[in-house]
Amino acid sequence: MVLLVCVVIGAFLLVLVYMLPTDEMKENVARSHNMYDYEGTYPEVIDGYKSYQLDNNTDGLMLLQAVFPGNDDAFRNSLLNPYYVDDVNNSMQQVLNDYANDVNRSRGIVYYSRYWHGYLLYLKPLLLFFDIGDIRVINTILQLALIMILFYLMISRGYKNYLIPLFCGLIVISPTITGLSFQYTAVFYIMLLGMIFMLTRKYSFLKKGDYLYYFVLIGIATSFMDFLTYPIVTLGMPLCVYLIIDKTPSVRKRIAHEIKLIIAWAFGYYGMWASKWIVAYVFTGEKVIQDAIQETNKLTSNTDGANNLFSLPYRISAIIKIIGVLCRWPYVLLFTASMCFIVFRIARKSGRKHILTSINRSNLFYMLATCLPYLIIALLPLVQAILMPTHTEYHYWFTYKNLAVTVFSLLAWISELGESKCLK
């Protein structure tokens, strides 16, 4: 029922924004053409760092959909999501610049119907009043404000010991550039708001059990808004916050609750995604389902097109590719220093001599058992890389951002050990 309601509401809202006039949007895009000409297709804000690479090609595609003039059938356009391509340019931002500036080209129409493209709910209205540079600045301000609110809530709720793990997790995502790329924006907002809402409703989630529906909604929102960038963070980061809040002593119960939440998110995410294929096919008659299945096979197969879970070399290479983005000295030093600081804080709190002598077989077993719920979360990005190796490796400069979940969860586990009885 929740999924059905969200499908109806999402489809209705998209029809509304597709009814907006696009002339003003096109003019605001045209005013920003020099920016894309200067930056190029995949600019690195910091030279040599893929973690600071923008994706203007995909942003161009998103903007082409936003400014597509359409026709009187807003409902059909909202389901098929048409945009222009031309016979000259390969990069989408150049197609966008030429179209916005009325450069004479031979253009065709392409449908991108396998995604909901829910980001158009805010991108289209913003383009009515602001150019691309303005929207980038607004994005950056809002995201920094949400990060500040998140840190404030962590402190005010008594979870200041988890600030360093959270900080390191956010650093992996490179929040200084997420506001500059529309493709990175939607997931980042959902992740931040997902954690903030859990912290503001700390006790109700634990008492009422409505967190299951909450994770279904997070999955639905991610599927609706995202362009398949780094969606695992909307599951893993709030899930870490859930473990931090939930101090159930039974590790078995914590894992059981955690698995339920993962299933709830997956139901919302994949259910919402599949619903777009069905709705678009039923109401337009286009081969949306066939196209979606073919694309899914590409994303989950290896380079030879073999959809085989046992083609491990290629799937492992995808994992190595995304981990390699973080194998730079600033990240290594940050993670090492953070881990050392957390351990030092635990040692200082417990007494250096005590912490060295208190680790016995029983306490070691407890520490390993406590690790399991966080380890499950830490493995989520790697599982996605194994299941979707082609997508993960081909777009490694943003799919690596899923590793924020791994960093946050493992450091959070070490922080939780400092609050356990075995080290006191």
Count of DSSP H/I helices: 23
Sketch the topology as an H/E string, one letter per element.
Answer: HHHHHEHEHHHHHHHHHHHHHHHHH
Total beta strands: 2
Q: Could you tell me the mean pLDDT? A: 89
Uncertain stretches: none
Please outline the major beta sheet: 2 strands, antiparallel
Could you say which structural class the secondary elements and strand pairing correspond to? mainly alpha
Integer-rounded radius of gyration = 23 Å
Query: How do the strands of the widest beta sheet line up side by side?
Result: 1-2
What helical percentage do the residues reach?
over 70%
Fold blueprint:
Elements: H1 2-18, H2 23-30, H3 33-39, H4 56-67, H5 74-80, E1 82-86, H6 92-100, E2 107-111, H7 120-129, H8 132-156, H9 163-173, H10 175-178, H11 182-200, H12 202-208, H13 211-225, H14 233-245, H15 251-284, H16 288-300, H17 312-325, H18 329-350, H19 352-357, H20 361-387, H21 389-394, H22 396-399, H23 403-417
Antiparallel strand pairs: 1-2
Helix pairs in contact: 1-5, 1-7, 1-13, 2-6, 2-7, 4-6, 4-7, 8-11, 9-18, 9-23, 11-13, 11-14, 13-15, 14-20, 14-23, 15-20, 17-20, 18-23, 20-23
Question: Gist?
Answer:
With 424 residues, the chain is an all-alpha fold. A two-stranded antiparallel ribbon has the order 1-2. The chain has 23 helices and 2 strands.
